[in-house]
């Protein structure tokens, strides 16, 4: 059993388990309008969908659908000065590797927590005061989960909101960073996958109080330099400087994510503009 | 979905004259397109590469204009078979239509009731799929690796993102294509000499050494029998007065508006050889007929929620024919170079087919 495993070779040349360099994010693709929008008043009985986006970061794939702004169904939810933002995060039974349990979005604590985090992150950016007494519903469906569900959900929600034409202060971009010490060398990496998250959170969970492992999902508004979300649950021996270092790396990751998202938005915008001018690429479906 | 008597009259009358609201004839399907792992470059611009990479197989059924959009994932794992069926694999089906929202759910009811209705709908589709499709979906004997110890369990999860009528048909299509695109790695059991002592000697716990997994993806195969997986054709039976008597006739692949007008619906599952695998009749929702009949002064529009007895065999025959067309449609969709569909003269959905998509 003395043979080298693939991961050993990768770690020898300072690459991560999936072959990335420490400062590389996963391959990210964005698709705006993955589900074409339907008007609320159309003949179709499907619930109205104003915008949608499909984001995949590595093997994590998330579909987000935005509905609204529209009428608040219940009077008690209505706010007099701004819109109500409702966020639902759902998983599909096939999203997690292995585990077949379907989490109920109304009772599962992790999903409730994530939808709450998503809601606070998004309401920092949406100009909710423009739509008093109305409701915007953001539904996120996790199609495949390979770590970084929250980050992908935030990115997808931003793109879906842009697709729906809801005014935002800035794009909310999310990316994670982590740090662990492997073989005595501290390593800070960006955009962790599931295996790396387990490595970064599992070790600190066992009561090792002084361990330097940390997993930090961060959401920023990159063009303003604001951090809207940073969630860290591990005890750091390095203090604030250690945290700052990781946060810096995560914010750089967010910058990279923003470039990809902005490119996707531009591409979509160009398509819509062409269609408006009547020069769209028309395809005959056969 | 509520529909006014005038609309219902229009839909039924136009179907009677073999020209439905979207230009199809009575026994014509809409041009469904499929994207699976092997070909995710189907014609439509909206077809994202939808292969769910963490699953063993996946498919997406999609209509132009995205009125129907269904994802299906097939995940396989090894389980211990149930004691009363040691020589059969397991196929589990679940349907999630939460994102599709209230399809025909009454808007005014409160959230709890809506959720309950949604759950009921999902379980109806699941149980119908389980009865009509699952028993014939795969060769269960071929899913066994080691009798009594290891069998494949295929978990088929269907997510309905949107659906415009005939949910069951579209779900069955998604399931069939998902199963066909599934790749199971070749796993063989190691037969030990002490195996005859029974597995009490192994302490119940499965040791890691009794399976050999072939890691090469090129040697992975779809589950045997997946090609024979049946499809479901739902016929909606409409009734209208013609020449002093009530005439019943059926349409396939009804849209939601047409479904509402149907006096009853018959789901027939047909396998690729044309064999009928199951028939299920659903009492139609029916429309409020009195109001309509009063309005038009004629009797016989969407009268009862039952149908004449002698009609059932005719309906099943029609379904067989429609299923044959559907298999052809799906196959021609799979091999885009195949020009079979165009040779058929009328073509399928010639109005819908020429629908323009703006990129």
Give a description of the structure:
The complex is a heterodimer of chains A (286) and B (359). Chain A is α+β, with helices and mostly antiparallel strands and 286 residues long. Chain A has a single domain, classed as Ribosomal Protein S5, domain 2, CATH 3.30.230. Helix content of chain A is 31%, strand content 26%. Chain A contains 5 helices and 10 strands, in the order αββββαβαββαββαβ. In chain A, strands 1-2-3-5-4 form a 5-stranded mixed sheet. Chain A has a 4-stranded antiparallel sheet with strand order 7-6-8-9. In chain A, a hairpin with a 2-residue loop joins β6 and β7 (185-190). In chain A, α2 (109-123) crosses α3 (149-163). Chain A is globular, with a radius of gyration of 20 Å. Residues 40-46 and 204-210 of chain A have low confidence and may be disordered. By secondary structure, chain B is of the alpha+beta class. Chain B folds into 2 domains: 32-189 and 213-225, GHMP Kinase, N-terminal domain (Ribosomal Protein S5, domain 2); 231-353, no CATH class. Chain B is built from 8 helices and 13 strands. Chain B has helices spanning 5-16, 111-132, 167-181, 256-261, 289-296, 311-334, 340-343, 350-353, and strands spanning 33-36, 57-62, 69-79, 90-96, 144-146, 150-162, 187-189, 211-213, 231-242, 245-252, 264-270, 276-283, 356-358. In chain B, a hairpin with a 3-residue loop joins β5 and β6. In chain B, α1 (5-16) crosses α5 (289-296). Chain B is elongated. The interface between A and B is large, with 40 and 46 residues. β10 of chain A pairs antiparallel with β13 of chain B, so a sheet runs across the interface.
Give the topology.
The complex is a heterodimer of chains A (286) and B (359).
Chain A: H1 6-12, E1 28-32, E2 51-57, E3 60-71, E4 84-91, H2 109-123, E5 134-144, H3 149-163, E6 173-182, E7 185-190, H4 194-205, E8 214-221, E9 226-230, H5 239-277, E10 282-284
Parallel strand pairs in A: 4-5
Antiparallel strand pairs in A: 1-2, 2-3, 3-5, 6-7, 6-8, 8-9
Helix pairs in contact in A: 2-3
Chain B: H1 5-16, E1 33-36, E2 57-62, E3 69-79, E4 90-96, H2 111-132, E5 144-146, E6 150-162, H3 167-181, E7 187-189, E8 211-213, E9 231-242, E10 245-252, H4 256-261, E11 264-270, E12 276-283, H5 289-296, H6 311-334, H7 340-343, H8 350-353, E13 356-358
């Amino acid at each position: 059993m003395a043979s080298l495993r693939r991961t050993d070779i990768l770690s020898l040349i300072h690459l991560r388990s999936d072959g990335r360099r420490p400062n590389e994010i996963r391959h990210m693709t964005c698709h705006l309008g993955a589900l074409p929008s339907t008007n609320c008043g159309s003949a179709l009985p499907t619930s109205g969908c104003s915008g949608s986006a499909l984001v995949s970061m590595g093997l994590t794939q998330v579909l987000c659908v935005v509905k609204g702004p529209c009428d608040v169904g219940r009077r008690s939810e209505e706010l007099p000065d701004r819109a109500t933002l409702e966020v639902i995060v759902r998983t599909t039974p096939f999203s997690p590797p292995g585990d077949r349990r379907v989490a109920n979005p109304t009772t599962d604590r992790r999903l409730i927590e994530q939808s709450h985090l998503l809601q606070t992150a998004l309401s920092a950016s949406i100009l909710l005061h423009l739509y008093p007494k109305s409701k915007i519903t953001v539904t996120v469906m996790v199609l495949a989960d390979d770590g970084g569900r929250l980050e992908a959900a935030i990115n997808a929600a931003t793109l879906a909101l842009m697709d729906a034409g809801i005014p935002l202060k800035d794009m909310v971009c999310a990316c994670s960073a982590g740090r662990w010490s492997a073989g005595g060398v501290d390593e800070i990496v960006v955009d962790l996958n599931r295996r790396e998250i387990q490595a970064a959170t599992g070790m600190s969970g066992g009561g090792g109080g002084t361990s330097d492992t940390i997993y930090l999902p961060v959401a920023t508004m990159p063009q303003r330099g604001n951090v809207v979300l940073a969630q860290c649950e591990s005890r750091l021996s390095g203090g604030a400087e250690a945290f700052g270092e990781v946060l810096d790396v995560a914010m750089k990751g967010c910058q990279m994510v923003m470039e990809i998202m902005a490119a996707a938005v531009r591409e979509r915008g160009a398509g819509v503009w062409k269609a408006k001018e009547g020069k769209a690429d028309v395809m005959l479906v056969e | 979905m509520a529909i006014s008597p005038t609309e219902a009259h229009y839909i039924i009358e136009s179907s009677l004259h073999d020209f439905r609201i979207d230009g199809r004839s009575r026994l014509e399907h809409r041009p469904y397109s499929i994207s699976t792992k092997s070909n995710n470059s189907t014609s439509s611009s909206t077809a994202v590469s939808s292969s769910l990479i963490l699953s063993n197989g996946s498919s997406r059924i999609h209509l132009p204009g995205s009125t129907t959009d269904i994802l299906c994932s097939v995940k396989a794992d090894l389980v211990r078979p149930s004691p009363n069926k040691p020589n059969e694999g397991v196929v589990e089906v679940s349907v999630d239509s939460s994102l599709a929202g209230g399809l025909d759910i009454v808007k005014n009811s409160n959230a709890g009731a809506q959720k309950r209705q949604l759950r009921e709908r999902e379980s109806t589709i699941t149980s119908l799929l389980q009865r009509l499709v699952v028993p014939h979906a795969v060769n269960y004997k071929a899913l066994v690796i080691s009798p009594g110890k290891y069998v494949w369990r295929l978990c088929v999860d269907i997510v309905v993102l949107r659906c415009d009528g005939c949910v069951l048909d579209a779900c069955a299509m998604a399931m069939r294509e998902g199963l066909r695109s599934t790749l199971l790695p070749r796993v063989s059991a190691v037969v030990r000499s002490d195996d005859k002592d029974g597995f009490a000697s192994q302490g119940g716990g499965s040791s890691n050494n009794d399976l050999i997994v072939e890691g090469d993806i090129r040697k992975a195969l779809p589950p045997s029998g997946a090609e024979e997986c049946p499809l479901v054709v739902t016929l909606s039976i409409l009734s209208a007065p013609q020449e002093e008597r009530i005439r019943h006739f059926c349409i396939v692949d009804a849209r939601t508006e047409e479904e509402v007008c149907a006096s009853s619906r018959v789901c027939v599952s047909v396998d690729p050889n044309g064999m009928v695998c199951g028939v299920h009749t659903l009492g139609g929702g029916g429309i409020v007929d009195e109001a309509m009949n009063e309005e038009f002064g004629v009797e016989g529009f969407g009268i009862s929620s039952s149908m004449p007895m002698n009609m059932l065999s005719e309906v099943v025959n029609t379904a067989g024919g429609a299923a044959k067309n559907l298999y052809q449609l799906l196959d021609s969709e799979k091999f885009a170079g195949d020009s079979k569909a165009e040779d058929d003269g009328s073509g399928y959905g010639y109005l819908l087919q020429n629908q323009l998509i703006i990129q």
